[in-house]
Design brief:
The protein is of the alpha/beta class. The chain has 13 helices and 14 strands. It is globular. The structure holds pyridoxal-5'-phosphate.
């Protein structure tokens, strides 16, 4: 029996050809390909400005800096997220304050946020967890009058939609990931998108040491002009090698999302008939790219998550325990990170698992996974 992985990136000859062309051009660092990828990504996401970065983690770091978040500020984040969501405020000297999530979507809501706000709250990081779009409008209705910046962590959400537009289009600023575990990949890579021209300009500078002229602009002149460093910046650059792969991947995004949604519908139909399991679905306000297809083993279920993981492993199906809870990690277990109840977070972290779902997954592979779920439920 061949093993079914939880995720497999979809790459091929086109990416190889795109990489070869960059190598042959003689310019492999951040340059024309990165600029092209930024323009294409902004167009795809309905964003005005896009600034490519080395990862979503560095994109979040830049987003917080350009939004003016720093020492002494509080940033409300979900604990129910990859650790980078909580780390980013820490990098800029702010305090991550954990808020709970909605038990159905796994995302922050205006209600779960409100109880975590403090007089020092400067920003909120709103995650579209696993690609499920968060309800941005209700969060903005809470935050805008209080002058709180909403930063969307759309790491997982390229190809998801919110009220008929691409996710992220309505955010002040959003951060994206192109890690292979996400919906499209550049190996490692990220992006900041924003409607604010001044924020985009500052992010562009900060990612390249806050240099007054980019290395590629200086290279265009035989007699390179002297550069200046107005503030302390970073090396958060993407390379042209990565961007060339990103351009190929981006063109495939609609096809990838269509296939993922079709596989998700197959899971949802089968799981609806299995007692004790609940599958992630589209919320009423948008569509999900199903970057992570998770199921919750419900309280009334006759079997628990660990048993189900073992059954799947016996059938050579690689599932994963659900999204982590940052507040339980040693890095955040001590220290003051607010006092909000994190009950839904803990329930989801302890009782969800992520099922295999990737573009090349065949219908028969999916049937194999579903058969294990059915037989586990029948045997319990
Ligand atoms: C993966 C992920 C990140 C980090 O992305 P990198 O590109 O690996 O830095 C941040 N936030 C969320 C919600 C993620 O899922």
């Amino acid at each position: 029996m061949t093993r079914i992985n939880v995720m497999q990136p979809w790459m091929g000859q086109e990416e190889i050809a795109a990489l070869a062309a960059v190598v042959e051009s003689g310019w492999v660092a951040q340059g024309a390909r990165v600029a092209e990828f930024e323009t294409a990504f902004a167009a795809m996401q309905g964003a005005e400005h896009a600034v490519a970065t080395s990862s979503c983690t560095t994109a979040l770091h830049l987003a917080l800096l350009v939004a003016g978040v720093g020492d002494g500020d509080d940033v409300v984040v979900p604990s129910f997220s990859f650790i980078a969501t909580a780390n980013a405020p820490t990098y800029v000297g702010a305090r991550p304050v954990f808020a709970d999530v909605d038990p159905t979507t796994g995302n922050l809501t205006a209600a779960t946020l409100e109880v975590a706000l403090t007089p020092a709250t400067r920003a909120v990081v709103l995650v579209d967890q696993g690609g499920v779009p968060a309800d941005l409008e209700s969060v903005r209705a809470l935050c805008d009058p209080r002058g709180i910046v909403v930063i969307e962590d759309a790491a997982c959400a390229a190809g998801s939609t919110y009220r008929g537009s691409p996710v992220g289009a309505g955010a002040d600023i959003a951060a994206w990931s192109f890690h292979p575990r996400k919906i499209l990949t550049t190996g490692e890579g990220g992006m900041v998108t924003t409607a604010d021209a001044a924020w985009a300009t500052r992010a562009r500078r900060l990612r390249e040491h806050a240099m007054s002229a980019s290395a590629s602009a200086r290279h265009a002149n035989v007699l390179a002009p002297p550069e200046e460093y107005a503030e302390v910046g970073f090396n958060f650059r993407m390379t042209d090698l990565q961007a060339a792969v990103g351009l190929v991947q981006l063109a495939r995004l609609p096809e990838v999302v269509e296939r993922r949604r079709s596989l998700a519908a197959g899971y949802q139909k089968a799981i609806a008939e299995i007692d004790g399991l609940r599958a992630v679905t589209d919320p009423s306000w948008g569509t999900c790219n199903y970057q992570s297809f998770w199921v919750e083993v419900e309280e009334a279920s006759p079997f628990d998550r660990e048993e189900l993981m073992v059954r799947l492993a016996e059938a050579e199906v690689s599932a994963r325990r659900g999204i982590m809870a940052a507040h339980r990690q040693p890095a955040y277990r001590t220290g003051d990170h607010g006092a909000a109840s994190l009950r839904a977070t803990e329930r989801l972290t302890d009782n969800t698992l992520i099922l295999p779902l990737f573009h090349q997954m065949s219908d028969s592979e999916q049937t194999r996974v579903i058969d294990v779920l059915r037989s586990a439920a029948a045997k319990a």
